[in-house]
Amino acid sequence: MRRFLVTAAAVAIAGGLTACGSSSSSGTPTGSGHTSAALSCTRPGLQHLLFKPGVLTVGTDKPAFTPWFVNNTPTNGKGYESAVAYAVAAQLGFSHSQVTWVHEPFNSVYSPGPKAFDFDINEVSFTPQRAQAVTFSDSYYPVQQSIVALKGSAIATKHSPAQLKTYLYGDQIGTTGLTYINTDIQPTRQPKVFNTLQLAASALEAHRIDALITDTPTAQYMAAYQLKHALLVAQFPTVGEHYGLVLAKGNKLVTCVNKALATLTSDGTLAALQHKWLGIFLNFPTIKP
Amino acid sequence: MFTGGGARGTVISTASTVGVLAIFVLIFVLAPGARTVAHAFFYGRDMWQSFIGDPRKGYYSVGAAIWLNIRMFLAAEVLILPFALVIALIRQSTHPALFPIRVIATVYVDFFRGVPLLLVVVALGLGVPGLYLPVISHQPDAVYGVAALVITYSAYVSEVYRAGLNSVHRSQVAAARSLGLTQRTALRYVILRQAVRNIIPPLLNDFIALQKDTSLVGVLGVIEANQAASIYASTVFNYSSFTVAAILFLILTIPLARFTDRLIERDRRRRLAGVAA
Predict the structure, then answer these.
(1) How many domains in chain A?
(2) Taking CB atoms and an 8 Å cutoff, what residues of chain A touch B126?
(3) Alpha carbon A91 to chain centroid distance?
(4) A contacts of B220 (beta carbons < 8 Å)
(5) Who among A4, A112, A194 is closest to B221 (CB)?
(6) Which of A173, A189, A210, A227 to mutate to test the interface with B (most CBs of B within 10 A)?
(7) Do A37 and A130 sit in the same domain of this protein?
(8) Is residue B1, in this structure, part of any structural domain at all?
(9) Element housing A215 (H / E)
(10) By residue range, what is the domain housing residue B198?
(11) How does DSSP classify residue A13?
């Protein structure tokens, strides 16, 4: 749910295209980092970079949302982000039991000072500005925004570009939805920004907003399972946004994490995991704002 | 007003102030992570950007958003003063026929002093619209926010009033009644006049807290200063916007705090003068 617009160049990767080498034009501080040598990306070789020796410490927020996690339990390996974390860990030589999870609230992911995790996986969108405070891995998921609305509401059927401007939107704090709304939809009324997705959903159910903007998998899950009378209206075309793992600023572990992600992309693992955990969530009409 | 002992006192207090400040600044500057923290919390560019805002980049002006806090505060204050007085007078009443509303007033005060304000804001802001009542279910979020502030703060302020009413000695009532004033006239011209003077400092104290608590209304999705700062921080990953919000709130509350101090001091001197005479 934490996402942000990016330059189109920085994206491409986890869309199942090619390995990181192709994104050389991104010019982002995270880069692909494959050039720095002398770092052995095996478990023994990484010891000095780890928060806790011997184990890979992964952070995420509570509650951990479906379909990114399942049953709010990151340790079960279920849900897309949990599965990706374990897949990256396996690439780096960590077994399932050598991965520990820590609760990391979204707002403290970017606090100054030492981090209590090796990487954080929490639907955080890469942006160049954010990359000044933390180090991002390459993409593990390309993001598209979707509209969730109540069944029978006007936006469910009337969503031409001109009509889209007339609605009152809601969004969760720290997400790219707000940027998308203001840049691409340009509504006439100021959107509302809620501290949590649950509050935004409550506002939707109480008719305080016409629609909620969030990433497509989350939107579909909310429409299908969480909210009784809601539906996913449509998704918007990609604007080159992607989710990345978050590491402490300058953490060299990112080189190995990116290598792992590149392997998982080229051997089709990421695509398979997306199909497995997000597959049913991704077939929706795309409309233009 | 803060210093005593004339010119020498001023010198000593100034030197001590500078010394204490220097220690804090040194601790901050010499800390190993000082630069990172300074960049995260006090970065000029981020402070300015969050102050002016840019919706296209996903954040709103903290400077513009504080205006909503000011309006909510003023509206709430104007409503709290009379409402809290009514509650206080009900609780102070003695007539047997008023017993049921005395109970209601007591329960009201106990309840809303005990329930976190945030919960009242959420309950009103999301609950009332869900009732689909004509008019009252279709208000802007700020209106529910102000309603929550009025309901909760009136409970506090009514207790301040009550303390003020009780602070006026019983002999004053007796004297007023013996002069032939009715209960009501005595209350109005003798009791309330003296009570109000006693309660102005604690009342202003509550209003300073009220100014800050307007930021809780942000939970309803409205862009007030704290919410705008929060949006900026989570969008850009820099907390300098919170520093901007803090400065703006200080600009609002410090004059009121100093004014309260002056009132307290003036009142103290007046009373001492009375004793000396």
Answers:
(1) 2
(2) 199, 202-203, 206, 208
(3) 20
(4) 192, 203, 208
(5) A194
(6) A173
(7) yes
(8) no
(9) strand A211-215
(10) 31-276
(11) G
Helix extents (H) in chain A: 43-46, 80-91, 154-157, 161-164, 177-180, 197-205, 216-221, 253-266, 269-278
Query: Does ipTM surpass 0.90 in this model?
Result: no
Nearest Cβ partner for A179 among B58, B227, B238:
B58
Q: pTM of the predicted model, to two decimals?
A: 0.82
Give the domain extent around A157: 145-235
Query: What count of residues does chain B have?
Result: 277
CB contact under 8 A, A179 and B57: yes
What are the beta bridge partners of residue A120? A59, A246
Q: Chain A 98-157, CB below 8 Å of chain B: which residues?
A: 106-107, 110-113, 129-130, 132-134
Q: Quick check: B56 and A192 CB within 8 A?
A: no
Overall domain count for chain B: 1
- Asked, for residue A3, whether it belongs to a domain, the answer is no
Whether A183 has its CB under 8 Å from any CB of chain B: the answer is: yes
Show pLDDT as tens, one digit a residue, over chain B (277 residues). 555 567 888 899 899 999 999 998 888 888 888 888 888 899 999 999 999 999 888 899 999 999 999 999 999 999 999 999 999 999 988 889 999 999 999 999 999 999 999 999 999 998 898 888 888 888 999 999 999 999 999 999 999 999 999 998 889 888 998 999 988 898 888 888 888 888 888 898 899 999 999 999 999 999 999 999 999 999 999 999 999 999 999 998 888 888 888 888 887 888 787 655 4
Q: Which residue has the tokens 């505060």?
A: B73
